[in-house]
Amino acid sequence: MTADPATDVFEEHRTLLTGVAYRMLGRVADAEDVVQDTWLRWARADRAEIREPRAYLVRITTRLAIDRLRQVRSRAESYVGPWLPEPYLTEYGDVAPDAADRAVLADTVSLAVLVVLESLSPLERAVFVLREAFGFPFAEIAALLDRGEPAVRQLAGRARRHVAERRPRYDVDADRRRELTERFLRAASGGDLDGLMSVLAPDVRLVSDGGGKAKAALRIMHSADKVARFLAAVAPAAVPDFSVRLLEANGGPAVLVLSGGKPDSLFQLDAAQGRVTSVYIQRNPDKLRHLADD
Asked: Which of 8, 122, 259, 282 would you call most buried, defined as having the most Cβ atoms within 10 angstroms of its Cβ?
């Protein structure tokens, strides 16, 4: 608690607002900017006229995120190579009170889902995030977006079908996924081709994001043989003064590779039937900077 009630109310909802903004944008810095802009509007508002602070704050955050999403998409056409979201260190605070809610939140912030969400319209994405990630009623979403409830239901159905059709399937629980990540790390860090082949699914795909600022595959790579050979060739052991750290990002285990103590790349996996089905590699330094230790 602080001496300022307005600050206390905002801080109570900050985790929710950040979660909405990040799922809308897939970019940590942009999400933080949106939440900061929401705070500025909240600080200037006549709060005596605001009956439901949570609804007010989510409405402002969502609308600002929609505007920001339209802006960044106009710049995305010049992006070099595949695009991946910025890694998001998963901290739910009081937003996920139980394991079931935590599982839903983790799924809607996963790299696989965020990549699919990039193909939705800004309004579809807003409805999907508010409904699927945070369970807002359709009537409340309609009020937040100044849309009729039938239109919101239609947007939600279209977004849900789109995501269901395009999201990769995986059925490995959290413990098994972490074990698979550790096996992958041991094989990849030493350039062990046979070890990599033993954990990769035959139709595995690799997506790497360098943003034109770091070496990365410029196209999505498919097949165990091609992915294993690529990973063996870019083994973390080849990174000067390398070290690795296991952490949780986007709702699942991730491997952060550091060079001289600074983030060099982040690996994350999807898995099904005990094998790795997708390998995501984030190498864009702009998207790793926030993972550096203070």
From this structure: 282
Residue type, 176: R
Residue 286: count of CB within 10 angstroms of its CB: 12
Reference 114, options 152, 91, 96, 88; nearest CA is: 88
Strand order in the sheet with 200-209: 221-222, 200-209, 275-282, 262-272, 252-259, 242-249
pTM over the 0.70 mark: yes
Longest distance between any two alpha carbons in the chain, whole Å: 66
Q: Are strands 242-249 and 221-222 parallel, antiparallel or unpaired?
A: unpaired
Q: Please report which confidence band the pLDDT of residue 5 belongs to, taking 50, 70 and 90 as the band edges.
A: confident
Distance separating alpha carbons of residues 109 and 12, to the nearest angstrom? 21
Give alpha helix (H) positions in the chain.
5-25, 28-44, 53-76, 99-108, 111-117, 122-128, 138-145, 149-166, 174-189, 193-199, 224-233, 285-288
Residue 236 tokens, joined: 């973390």
Pairing of strands 200-209, 252-259: unpaired
Q: What is the pLDDT of residues 116-159, one digit of tens each?
A: 999 999 999 999 999 998 999 999 999 999 999 999 999 999 99
Query: In this structure, are residues 202 and 223 in contact, taking their beta carbons and an 8 Å threshold?
Result: yes
Residue 5 · residue 42 · CB < 8 Å: no
Residues 71 and 232: their CA atoms lie apart, in Å, by 38
d(CA 155, CA 127): 7
Kindly report, residue by residue over 154-192, the tens digit of the pLDDT: 999 999 999 988 876 666 677 788 889 999 988 988 888
Using CA atoms, how far apart are residues 145 and 163, in angstroms rounded to an integer? 21
The contacts of residue 3 (CB under 8 Å, 6+ apart) are none
Q: What is the dihedral of CA 38, 40, 45, 48, to 10 degrees?
A: 80
- Distance (Å, rounded) from C-alpha 273 to C-alpha 90? 25
